[in-house]
TrEMBL record:
Stretches with biased composition (Acidic residues): 876-887
Disordered as annotated region, ranges: 840-887
Keyword Ribonucleoprotein: no
Annotated Gene3D superfamilies: 3.30.1360.40, Topoisomerase II, domain 5, Topoisomerase, domain 3
Protein name: DNA gyrase/topoisomerase IV subunit A
Any Pfam family hit: DNA_topoisoIV
């Protein structure tokens, strides 16, 4: 480094070219001074009261102007400028932000809308006053420390004596020089409960609660410290089969920004929507209309993946303590705030105790002064000193019980008592006043001795007085990650030029492969036995003589590739089966032994591990007797893609023919339901629902009396009112007892699902109708508990065998009346024993387990995405030049 005064010379030691002079003096500290000012005086809130300076000055000004009536915001802003050295715009904006949080300011007029992002009206049109809560917890001039304002003309509070974790309730955000802060808002009631737990010495956890509602995953919240992350989502539900409705927003978005993000995703082809309507008023309502035939569940996931319906927030707890920035978690913020509240309550009690003792002291002096007629002792005194001395002398015999010495100020106050008051003095009333003061003193002393209990009672009072309507708005939930490649709309078409070896979306004159998206990967196989996975692009060279191309699905253990290849130009032929689960993008993989001249004789891609039967035809050569025979791929084990395979023949193969289409050789998929995220999966998380083959379906029954069967997909969403989720057995009846709102009686029915894939209600559509119990057992039992009628004994409980009570009828049938007697409740009992038809479990099937598919595959890193593979061509014939012909 060149020090001040050092000279720069060239390599020939010529005369100096230039010098570096360091800038010193006033410039040296300017940046540090500016950074400190921004951090301390503008951007970061203080931990003591949770306010930034501008917010504190607004609150102080509002207290100055407070007379119980509304004041124009413009007047408040003007008054605040006496304390705040910046312009009126910054004050007005800060005040609107406080008012929109609906805690400290009682607003009147158009203060904007946090849901739509609409700004507030001009400050001359809107009004404000302090809320009852603010008057209760923010102010107490007797325990407030004061400092001179920026121009020295007035006094302003250093910190307001806030006796509540206000910073956590309102949240705070600011960008300073070199640091920033982002403290998320928390729930009012939960903060009070946590403060009480802290005072009781118990552990507590607090999580953010956003005014816009929505759903949030706080599993990585990290107590609000740096490095934490909160995932927030809009609340989206299905209104009907072609309409989604958004009713709550993720924090940090508005209806306008959310709709814009949806329209952009639609324009880019990530999602597909018909139109969007914004019906937001007091509550959020955004209707997303879908084209017919589009999956609502998949679209919901796509909205989370490609729009602002899901976003990530990174909290950062930074506050000012003793004029220094402090990085701190929300739990510690709450502890410090609660401890500070206890100390403020203690100061308040001590001041109150001093006031009561002063009142008691003077009331006692006044009684002594009047009751003993000491005022007569001053009648003959001619000087002021004599008057003071006479009263002091007259009091001395009666002041032994007082708690402090009598001062001259006390005597002066006695001389100010009017004659009228002396003449009407009532000793009993005076004593009652003294007794009342003694009770108040005792009460305050008791509170000081039991300060923690007093603080707990204080927080409980706040909860009782101000907690109504402040229940949690944001639903706490753990999110399942959305795989963007599984929910993206296939917005483009993929083409292939097999001979030249090009694939891409711009080859419209060549062979059409299928639909894909611009974030998909494609997998390609060539006749030389080479394989490659590459990103979808307009035109990509992957190798000549392509025999199969499809969208690649990452970690796909069910797509099995069947292959027969010749090793080298004149080598033997081998047969192999393999899966491709993970791979490095844009790398050539050789599926043969690697000898020059190797050739693929037969290839097929099978989405469910199908194993076909093929016929091997040899060329007539020498003394070969058997020129044709069949091979069943089901006899070949599924191994890694790098395996050599099993020997087919050492003789030249003329052609390979498909003789019989294959059936799946994979076990049925086991599907689990994870109650934590309310999603199904194939990864073993949650409760096992069952083993599903291709045609098997899920049975879903909701509390509203709606049943439906659906093909299980991991993108499915399930409503909160779902009460039955199981593998559907078509011949297994569903039994239900429901209250018919029109008849005002209970009915029993048993039925089968008649229309697969369609939602059907099995109770009456009367608004008072409701489902009591539903059972999918073969022989369900129910217990009826009767209501007690006046003047009669309660009837014994009735056990009902639902199978015997009613035959299986149509799903729309009303059913049979259960009883005419009034019913208290209906309980579902243990079903009667029944041997259900045995199902062949996956473990008993002579098929390949998915877990074994890639057991011999080498482990590789990958950044591939997934897609839906397309079944490849099955029949190939090799002509005399060794070319593959596709049938």
């Amino acid at each position: 480094m060149i020090e001040e005064g050092d000279e720069l010379t060239n390599e020939h030691n010529e005369e100096p070219q230039e010098t570096i002079t360091r800038v010193t003096g006033m410039y040296k500290d300017w940046f540090l001074d500016y950074a400190s000012y921004v951090i301390l005086e503008r951007a970061v809130p203080a931990i003591e009261d949770g306010f930034k300076p501008v917010q504190r000055r607004i609150m102080h000004s509002m207290k100055d102007l407070d007379d119980g009536r509304y004041n124009k915001v413009a007047n408040i802003v003007g008054h605040t400028m006496q304390y705040h050295p910046h312009g009126d715009a910054s004050i007005a904006d800060a005040m609107v932000q406080i008012g929109q949080k609906d805690l400290l300011i009682d607003t009147q007029g158009n203060w904007g809308n946090i849901l739509t992002g609409d700004s507030a009206a001009a400050s001359r049109y809107i009004e404000a006053r302090l809320s009852k809560f603010a008057l209760d917890v923010v102010y107490n001039p007797k325990i407030t420390e004061w400092q001179a304002s920026y121009d020295g003309r007035r006094k302003e509070p250093i910190n307001l004596p806030v006796m509540f974790p206000l910073l956590l309730a309102q949240g705070g955000e600011g960008i300073a020089v070199g640091l920033s802060t982002k403290i998320l808002p928390h729930n009012f009631i939960e903060l009070i409960d946590a403060s009480i737990k802290h005072l009781q010495g118990k552990r507590f956890t607090i999580l953010p609660d956003f005014p816009t509602g929505g759903i949030a995953d706080f599993s990585n919240y990290n107590d609000g410290n740096r490095g934490g992350k909160v995932r927030v989502r809009a609340k989206i539900s299905q209104l009907d089969k072609n309409t989604l409705v958004i009713t709550e927003l993720p924090f940090g978005t508005t209806t306008s920004s959310l709709i814009d993000s949806i329209l952009k995703a639609n324009d880019k082809g990530k999602i597909k929507i018909k139109k969007i309507e914004d019906n937001t008023a007091a509550e959020v309502e955004i209707l997303v209309h879908l084209p017919s035939g589009l999956s609502p569940d998949k679209t919901i996931d796509a909205l989370y993946a490609f729009t602002s319906c899901e976003s990530s927030i990174s909290p950062l707890g930074c506050v000012i303590e003793e004029n220094k920035p402090l990085f701190i978690g929300v739990s510690e913020m709450l502890r410090r705030s609660t401890d500070n509240t206890v100390q403020l309550l203690k100061q308040e009690l001590e001041i109150k105790l001093g006031e009561f003792e002063e009142q008691w002291h003077f009331a006692s002096l006044e009684r002594i002064f009047i009751e003993n007629r000491i005022y007569r002792d001053i009648e003959e005194e001619e000087t002021w000193e004599g008057v003071i001395s006479a009263i002091d002398k007259g009091l001395k015999p009666h002041i032994k019980h007082l708690k402090r010495a009598v001062t001259e100020d006390d005597i002066v106050r006695l001389t100010e008592i009017r004659i009228k008051r002396i003449s009407k003095f009532d000793i009993d009333k005076a004593q009652q006043k003294i007794d009342a003061l003694e009770e108040q003193i005792a009460e305050v002393k008791h509170h000081l001795e039991h300060l923690i209990e007093y603080a707990i009672a204080y927080f409980q009072r706040l909860k009782k007085d101000y907690g109504e309507g402040r229940q949690r708005k944001t639903e706490i939930k753990i999110f399942d990650d959305v795989d963007a490649t599984k929910v993206v709309i296939r917005n483009t078409k993929l083409y292939v030029n097999r001979e030249e070896g090009f694939v891409g979306t711009s080859l419209r004159r060549d062979e059409y492969v299928g639909d894909c998206s611009d974030i998909d990967d494609i997998i390609v196989f060539t006749k030389e036995g080479k394989m490659m996975v590459t990103k979808v692009d307009s035109k990509t060279f992957v190798g000549k003589d392509i025999i199969h191309v499809a969208v690649f699905k990452k970690k796909d253990k069910r797509t099995i590739y069947n292959m027969i290849y010749r090793d080298g130009r004149k080598g033997p032929s081998y047969i192999k089966r393999f899966a491709v689960t993970s791979i490095t993008r844009d790398r050539d993989y050789d599926l043969t032994n690697g000898n020059k001249g190797s050739l693929v004789l037969y290839f097929s891609a099978n989405p469910n591990g199908e194993a076909e039967v093929v016929a091997i035809n040899l060329r007539q050569a020498g003394s070969i007797k058997k020129l044709k025979w069949d091979i069943d791929f089901a006899d070949i084990l599924i191994k890694g893609r790098a395996s050599k395979g099993n020997l087919v023949t050492k003789y030249p193969v003329k052609r390979v023919e498909l003789k019989e289409k294959g059936v799946s050789t994979l076990k049925p998929r086991k599907i689990w339901f994870d109650d934590t995220v309310q999603r199904i999966n194939v990864d073993g998380r949650g409760e096992l629902i069952g083993e599903f083959r291709g045609e098997d379906k899920l049975l879903i029954i909701n509390q509203s009396g709606v049943a439906k069967t659906v093909t299980p997909e991991v993108t499915m969403h399930f409503g909160s009112d779902m009460i039955v989720l199981e593998k559907w057995v078509p011949k297994k009846p569903i039994s239900a007892i429901y209250f018919n709102g029109e008849k005002e009686l209970y009915y029993v029915k048993r039925f089968l699902i008649e229309n697969e894939g369609r939602e059907e209600s099995f109770i009456s559509d009367h608004p008072n109708s409701q489902l009591e119990i539903v059972s999918t057992d073969w022989k369900p039992m129910a217990e009826v508990v009767f209501a007690k009628e006046r003047g009669k004994d309660r009837k014994d409980n009735l056990e009902v065998n639902l199978e015997e009570f009613i035959d299986i009828k149509g799903i729309s049938a009303m059913g049979n009346q259960l009883t005419k007697d009034k019913i208290n409740q209906i309980n579902l009992l243990e079903p009667l024993p029944y041997e259900a038809p045995e199902e062949v479990h996956a473990d008993d099937l002579e098929v390949v387990d998915e877990m074994e598919v890639s057991s011999e595959s080498p482990t590789e890193t990958t950044d591939n995405t997934s897609g839906t593979p397309r079944k490849g061509e099955s029949d190939h014939e090799i002509d005399d030049e060794g070319q593959i012909t596709l049938f």
